[in-house]
Each structure stands twice: as structure tokens, then as C-alpha cells.
Amino acid sequence: MTDPLLHAEWIFRAGLDRVDPLKMMERVLSLDGDTLRVTTESQSFEYDLARYRRILVLGAGKASARMALGLEKLLGERIADGIVAVKEGHLELLDRIRLVEASHPVPDERSAAAAEAVLDLARTAEPGDLVFVLVSGGGSAILAAPWSENGRSLTLEDKQAVTKSLLACGATIQEINCVRKKLSNIKGGRLARALARAEFLSLILSDVIGDDLDAIASGLTVPDGTTCSEANGIIERYGLAGKLPPAAESLLRDVALGVIADTPKADDPAFANSRTVLIGTNHQALLAAREKARELGYNTLLLTSHLTGEAREMAHLFLGIAKDITAHGLPVERPACVIAGGETTVTLRGGGKGGRNQEMALAYLAAYARSPKDAGAAVFLAASTDGSDGPTDATGAFASPAILEQGRDLGLEPSRFLAENDAYHYFEQLGQLLKTGPTNTNVCDIKVLLVP
User: Fold this and answer.
1) Beta bridge pairs of residue 44
2) What is the pLDDT of residues 78-114, one digit of tens each?
3) Do 143 and 111 touch, CB atoms closer than 8 A?
4) Cβ 196 vs Cβ 269: under 8 Å
5) What are phi and psi of 132, to 5 degrees?
6) How far apart are the C-alpha atoms of 385 and 389, rounded to whole Å?
7) What's the rounded Cα separation, in Å, for the pair 286 and 446?
8) Of the candidates 136, 232, 400, 411, which lies 20 to 30 Å from 439 by C-alpha distance?
9) pTM
10) How far apart, in whole angstroms, are the C-alpha atoms of residue 135 and residue 205?
11) Which residues on adjacent β-strands are paired with residue 37?
């Protein structure tokens, strides 16, 4: 019988293949002469490309280079100019669109330069131009344009400090981006203001729970549905008040008081000539993973695409499901596969290395170690679709009884590594990290639980 660890990887990779940005662009966009058709399950419209003076392309995110490749294959020399900012290493070979690399998850000087380059090209857009904006997860860090107005401004160091604090406290991506939008000259719909004289179409690949458009890459070209009062509430909730750079906290207070203008809302004229299309989601990846699991002979349950919460707590959920399947055949009979998607969080307690998926797999093992007789021979894989789980070169990690015993033979106890948030070094020593390299897509995470 094939090793269930391999089955888990095959199921994950099937989901990954479904959300290949190049394939998604080909599904959504088609060209017939000068007529560009845009078609999804819920939208259908056309552009007569002969009407436009120039076609420009802007973008940002981990998947945006591959989205740009799809657009180049379709439009070729019709593209007059373009610039897309990506996470370092997430590249494609392009002819018409320039790629610039920047840092993630904390912005750096390259992120600031990338944001300025995108804004510079956006400001050249005029009536008669059509601009494609390619947006995917990671764009918030990859484009860093610290807020400035009337001689008052933030620094890149301010933005870096805020980002680091929000990442460490366990805030969700929606909460992090709610705050970041208020501190930016490009996020929260402010890129739309730079494009407002032209027509623009935003093609978006979702990496957030619920596919909230204004949270994906902090809503570069869509109205911001959040308020500064919400942003200040997030800072209070996570105990960050008085701990962030004073310039950032002062700005957030003044926006909440109306002293400084908030991000553009739905009635802002910046959005008058814009359209937005969601081209891919975590749910689509989960459907493909489910299909693969069924092909492999598993009774399969797609649990949710909205998995949130602390990674180490969600690990208990999957262990509990494994126990129920083993003992009672619930919620699905063996051989069983349970698939879930979403994005959990990690509250940093130690100085180790890892990511939310590695942490979940390690927490699963630590919990299993306390009750090894109840979960049978279950195999668990937690992995990120973008190819980098946290600030590591791993996509995720595997967990199983055999892996636990392998670790114990080397004197490795999962609970000790978990206390230090050091999942990477635990799994690295066992050869149980999943490494795909940059996938050039990004639709949250996929969890696969197999009970043979």
C-alpha cells in the first residue's frame, strides 16, 4: 500500500494545481480579435481593446508574477508598460512587464521602492488607458508606502515596527491589514485614487478567509470598509497601545477624530471607472484536493474553508476528529480523508523558527504523545499554498505516530520545541518538512487528515 504520507502530499498538490494563477487567468480571460472577455461563475463582461490608447499592468503579491505571465500570453505586444512587485524569489520570465522583488512578511527598503514605482506608473494613467491590476496575498508587505501628507509622515521603520508587533501578537490577517491600510499611501483603495483618470480592472487571487476584497493585499484598488476606530480597537485588544511608534499611534488617533482623512470609501469617485474580479479562492483548491482524495479511495469530507484561531489549538480539533474516525467512524468512515482550509495564527512565545502550519503539525504531535492509543495510524499534513510557511523555506510539515517515534529515537520531544515556537528545527531533523519552493500562488492553507 502507498505510504499515507505520500497520499497526503498528492492531495495537497492537487489543490495547489487547481489554483495555479496561469491556469486561472486562462479560465477567466479570453481574446477574440479586439474583444477581451472576462467570465467567472458570477460575472461576464467585455472590453473592446481597440478603444484604448494604452494598456498598462500593475500588480503586487506572491502570485502576481504568474498572473502577469498569463496576461502577457494573452495580450502580448498590446501591453505598453507594466510593473509588478513580488516576494523575493517568486519570479517568472516576462517580456512586457517588469518584475521587482521585495520583502515579506515585514517590508524593507525594496518594498518602499516597489510601492513608489507602482505609484509612479499609476499616476501616468490617463483617460483612454486601460489598466490591469493584478493582486494577490503578500501585497501588503511587498508594497510599503508609509503615509505622508502636508509635511507630516511615517517612516519605513514605523511601518516595520507596526507589522512586527501585529504579526507577533496573534492578530488575524484582516486585523493586521485593517491597521496597515490606515498607515499607507497605497493601501485601502489609495492606489485607485492614483488610477482614477483611467479605466482599471483588478484581478484578485484571494488569500483571506471569506474572500474580503478590502483585506486581500490590504485592498489596493477597492473601497475600504474599515474605520480607524476599528483599527484603534485592534491595537487595544492586543495590548499594543503605547507600544507602537508614537507617529503611527498619533496618526490613527487623528484619523479616528476626523483631523486626517480616512481611506476612500465606496462613494469615492476614485472607483467610478473600476471593475473587480475574484479569479481564485481557497475553496476552489479544497474542491480539487477532495477530488484527488476520492480518486485515491478515501471517504472524504471537506470540513471548512474558514479555519481560524491559534494554530496549536486547531491541532486539537484535527486530533479529535482522528480519534472519532478511529473509534466510531465519525464524521466519516475509514479509510477517511478530512480536508480543511483557512489561515490560523501564532502567538509568539519563544525564539524558535517556524510558521503556522509547522506549528500546527507539531502541536498535533505533542497532543498525540499524550494519548497515543486513541487516534490509530492517522497522518496529518498542514501546508501553505504559497510555498513558504512563515519566514522559512518550508511549505508545511507532516505528523504521524511513526514521525513521533522517529523523533523520540533521537531524543526529540515535540512539547519542548512547541514551547519555543521551534517547529522548523524539530521537523528538519526528522526530514518531515514539506518543501515545494515558491509556488507563485497564494490562497491560504490546506490541511489534510488521513485515517487509513
Assistant:
1) 39
2) 999 999 999 999 999 999 999 999 999 999 999 999 9
3) yes
4) yes
5) -95, 130
6) 9
7) 7
8) 400
9) 0.91
10) 6
11) 30, 46
pLDDT given for residue 202 in this prediction: 98
> What gap in Å lies between CA 142 and CA 103, rounded to an integer?
6
User: Alpha carbon of 268 to those of 126, 148, 174, 199: distances in Å?
Assistant: 18, 20, 22, 15
Strand ranges (E), 137-224: 148-149, 152-153, 199-205
Contacts of 221 (CB under 8 A, 6+ apart): 133, 135, 189, 191, 192, 195, 200, 202, 274, 276
Q: Tally DSSP H helices, then E strands, for the chain.
A: 16, 17
- Return the C-alpha cell found at 297: 479511495
Q: Domains, the chain, ranges and CATH?
A: 21-145+184-226+263-280 (3.40.50.10180), 283-451 (3.40.1480.10)
CA 108 – CA 157 distance, rounded (Å): 9
pLDDT the model gives residue 227: 93
Residue 124: which of 66, 177, 53, 45 has the closest Cα? 53
Residues 263, 264, 270, 272: is their CA dihedral positive or negative?
A: positive
- Is 198 strand, coil or helix? coil
What was the pLDDT predicted at 379?
97
Residue 39's φ and ψ, nearest 5 degrees, are -135, 125
Three-state DSSP class for residue 281: coil
Separation between Cα atoms, residue 30 and residue 44, nearest integer Å? 11
The one-letter code for the residue type at 315 is A
CA-to-CA distance for 223 and 77, rounded, in angstroms? Answer: 32
List the beta bridge partners of residue 277.
203
| Cα distance between residue 429 and residue 361, in whole Å | 15
Euclidean distance between CA atoms 233 and 46, whole angstroms: 42
Taking the C-alpha atoms of residue 404 and residue 430, their distance in angstroms, rounded to an integer, is 9
Of the chain, the percentage scoring pLDDT greater than 90 comes to 95
In angstroms, the Cα distances linking 253 to 90, 119, 261, 422 are 37, 26, 11, 37
Q: Which residues of 251-284 are buried (b: 16+ CB within 10 A; e: fewer)?
A: bbeebbeeebebbbeeeeebbebbebbbbbbbbb
CA distance 246 to 176: 18
- Mean pLDDT, range 218-226, rounded to an integer: 96
DSSP H or E stretch at residue 261: none
Q: Is the pLDDT of residue 1 over 60?
A: no
C-alpha cell at 50: 481597440
Query: How many other β-carbons are positioned within 10 Å of the β-carbon of residue 410?
Result: 9
